[in-house]
Amino acid sequence: MNRRTFIAQAGAALAGAGLAPGGFSWAQIQPDVRLEIAPLELEIAPGKLVHTVAYNGRVPGPLIRWPEGKPIVIDVLNRTSVPEIVHWHGLEIPTDMDGAAEEGSPMIPPGGQFRYTFTPRPAGFRWYHTHAFAGHDLKRGTYTGQFGCFYIEPKSDAGAYDQEIFLTLHDWNAYLAASGDASMDAAYDYSTINDHMLGFGDPLKVREGQRVLLHLLNASASIIHWLALAGHELTVVAMDGNPVPTPSPMPAIRLGPAERVDAVATMNHPGIWILGETREKIRKAGMGVVFEYANQQGKPRWIDPPETLWDYRRFAKPQGMIRQPDQVVPLRFESNFHGQGAVATWKINGKSFPQTDTIMLKEGLKYRLQMINRSGDDHPLHLHRHTFEVTSIDSKPLMGLNKDVVIVPANATAEADFVAKNPGATLFHCHNQTHMDFGFMTLLRYA
Amino acid sequence: MIPRFDFSVAVPAKEVNMAGVFACSLLTVFLFSPDSARAQDNYEIQVYPSETMAPKTLLVELHSNFTVEGSTTTQFGMLPTEHQEHETIELTQGINEWSEIGLYIFTAEKSGNEIQWAGDHIRPRVRVPPRWHWPVGVSLSSEFGYARPAFSNPTWSWQIMPIVDQIIGRWYWSVNGTMVWDIHVVPPPANFTTEQKQTYFRDVAPRGVTFGPAATLTYAPSKYYNFGVEYYSYYGEWGNFVSLHNQQQQFFPVVNLFVSPKWEINFGAGWGATAGTDHLIVKCIIGRSFDWSRHRPGSSKSAQ
Q1: Nearest chain B Cα to A227, which residue?
Q2: Mean pLDDT, range A265-292, rounded to an integer
Q3: Are A428 and A442 in contact (CB under 8 A)?
């Protein structure tokens, strides 16, 4: 059994149990948000069409902006020919609403619909995306345009900014190519910020002296990206929607798949500038957007930022005492080689999903995920329905950095603590679509 | 960059001022002995892949080849190959996503003699970029250079080599269609008859374009090594191939080790299947790549 058959059987079991979505009457309540999943021909540059699947005919999907603590009703219609599902990433919501078939959320059949009802929390920059299996079909899952931003407004927002901009990174036209770890992995033809390649979308208008809050989301299926705004520093104020203890200015920002960063840019250098991938090859493939100051003219400029290394500790608390966990959960990540011309399968503690051992939790206890990466790749690890505190990276301790995705460096160990306070099946996986489809996930369950 | 190999350099040279009788007798020996008709290129024995080196990356390879059993007589001024040790340094620099340039320094040594410089070649190569999504890898290599007549005939040569390869699961295959234009060959002895000269220019030093395909097939049980077979050949001039007896047909069982991302090692022992082939050669290639970008892994400028 692989992830595909597991999902199919889980969906069939739910259908057989007659689990009507939420026990509601469709006609009685109007949804707050309606998402329609359908094929889309997206013109990312003049004459460059990407055949994909998206929400409401646009990429990214509509921004959902919702007050913290207020229940929301979202209807999702599947107008494609394959089962789909929407995952509400970073939200601490019940298992059946989370949008992961592995946890028990129902798949939405072709032509069908489903109503998601939950109370969004915690406040901050979350997002939503498909959680469907792709496998060797690189036109499915997170390779598509099925993603959008979900901003849960805090009850009190200092709002120390003049303008707010949501930017999503994505890579298109995936194909399998040789990777750094000897096996095949996804590579891409084009990259975009929001729905256009660099130079082809409308510029973002700013004024001198403004403080612009950028909500940056890496919605790539598998690529870790670096972003910089030429001529400006970006001050990181939040990660994965959670304020960081030590906001820090950076010449460039690193984002693993599914990671988010909120960063403030002070517009103090008038001109026409490019915010783009720091690596020229990816920027030329389209990953960039133009920032245009009022009353400025000319060609957009790019200035290479100084070479930057990313260290989560820079944004964590300088020092302090971490409460020790009640239990440490060692998780060893390894790959199984199937040839340089094949995709590797992935194992957690020697087993590939769904054969992985389920981790049992007791409500109220604090657990430490000890993520031991024995591969040559950096992996963005995501825990569903919970927020964790990153407590060490490569044996270097840190505290106060709350996230739901953490990049575990190649051949290194990272640790993250969380409190079991949201009962139900909880998925833990690498957010690289290829990796998760080929075994890199496991389930946590509450006793 | 393993797997790959080249079969371009070196054919036997001849002493231009050789005495006629000696030359005739030598040619007779040469044509009818089990030694090579056209001496073998044993400097860099490698089947090339279509992939090129990454930009700002230099691969340094040392090719060490020892002819255990080869030609035992001097042929047209070219030294016997048996017990010759060849050391070739190959430098390959990536230029961009789809091209590279290589440089070869050939040396030869035989017991009792010092290491001697044998020649140099330069080799630009271009490939079909991966974003074209071709089902097979394709590249085109062009190799030009000089080799001393004691070690090679022709001395000046230009090689064009289309390369096609593919990885299917654990299997890898590559075919190199090696074609060499012998720009300058060592002339035959002055007292050769017309017939002898015809034979010389057909079997020893063709003035046209020669053909000698090479290929490899490997299987990778692990990401750290693969094993397989490499095939090298020399058929002769296009449209006028030499007889099978005088062709070169050689098979190398090989092992490739990938002990780290920066190192690659190839071992092989080659068996010559025809009288025109050196009968036994052992070879080793050790390669080490250097990243000149000076970017730290995982940084904002790293390719990772």
Answers
A1: B300
A2: 97
A3: yes
- B169:A338 CB<8 A: yes
Q: Cite the DSSP H helix spans in B69-208.
A: 194-199
CA B24/CA B195 separation, integer angstroms: 12
Looking at residue B9, its pLDDT comes to 34
Q: Is the dihedral of CA B14, B20, B23, B24 positive or negative?
A: positive
By three-state DSSP, how is residue A16 classified? helix
Under DSSP, the state recorded for B43 is S
Q: Is there a cis peptide before residue A67, judged by omega within 30 degrees of 0? A: no
Residues linked to residue B289 through DSSP beta bridges, in sequence order: B59
Separation between Cα atoms, residue B60 and residue B12, nearest integer Å: 28
Alpha-carbon Rg for chain B in angstroms: 20
- Residue A189 CA to its chain's centroid (Å): 21
Query: Could you read off the pLDDT of A333-349 as tens digits, one per residue?
Result: 999 999 989 999 999 99
Percent of the residues in chain A that have a pLDDT greater than 70, as a whole number = 93
Tens-place pLDDT, residues A360-394:
999 999 999 999 999 999 999 999 999 999 999 99
Q: How many angstroms separate the CA of residue B303 from the nearest CA in chain A?
A: 7
Distance CA A63, CA A165 (A): 11
Q: Which residues of A touch B (CB under 8 A)?
A: 175, 177-178, 180-183, 187, 189, 224, 226, 228, 251-252, 254, 278-279, 281, 304-305, 307-310, 337-342, 376, 378, 409
**First CA to last CA across chain A, in angstroms?**
25
Q: How many CA atoms lie within 13 A of A67 on its CB side?
A: 5
The half-sphere exposure of A337 on its side-chain side, counting CA atoms within 13 A, is: 20
Set of chain B residues whose Cβ sits within 8 Å of the Cβ of A305: 300
Q: Are A444 and A425 within 8 A, CB to CB? A: yes
CA distance B10 to A270: 64
The closest of A207, A223, A212, A240 to A278, measured between CA atoms, is: A223
The span from the CA of B106 to the CA of B253, in Å, is 24
Per the omega criterion (within 30 degrees of 0), is the bond before B3 cis?
Answer: yes
Give the pLDDT confidence score for residue B119 in this predicted structure.
94
Q: What's the N-to-C CA distance of chain B in angstroms?
A: 19
CA-based nearest residue to A174, from A131, A219, A221: A221
Contact A187 B298 (CB under 8 A): no
Name the 3-class secondary structure at A275: strand
DSSP string, B117-137: EEEEEEEEEEE--GGG--SSE
How distant is the Cα of B157 from the closest Cα of chain A, in angstroms? 34
List, edge to edge, every strand of the sheet that includes A396-403.
Answer: A345-348, A327-336, A366-373, A413-419, A388-393, A396-403
d(CA B259, CA A150): 46
Helices (H) and strands (E) in chain B, counts: 2, 16
DSSP result, A104-134: TPPPB-TT-EEEEEE---SSEEEEEEE----
Q: Is the pLDDT of residue B10 over 70?
A: no
Out of A178, A279, A342, closest to residue B169 by CB: A342
Residue A308 has pLDDT above 80, yes or no: yes
- The token pair that represents A116 in the structure block: 């998601």
Nearest CA-CA partner of A369 in A334, A345, A404, A335: A404
Distance CA B208, CA B181 (A): 6
Q: Are A148 and A55 in contact (CB under 8 A)?
A: yes
The arithmetic mean of pLDDT across residues B86-109, rounded, is 94
The contacts of residue A96 (CB under 8 Å, 6+ apart) are A19, A104, A105, A106, A424
- What pLDDT score does B154 carry? 86
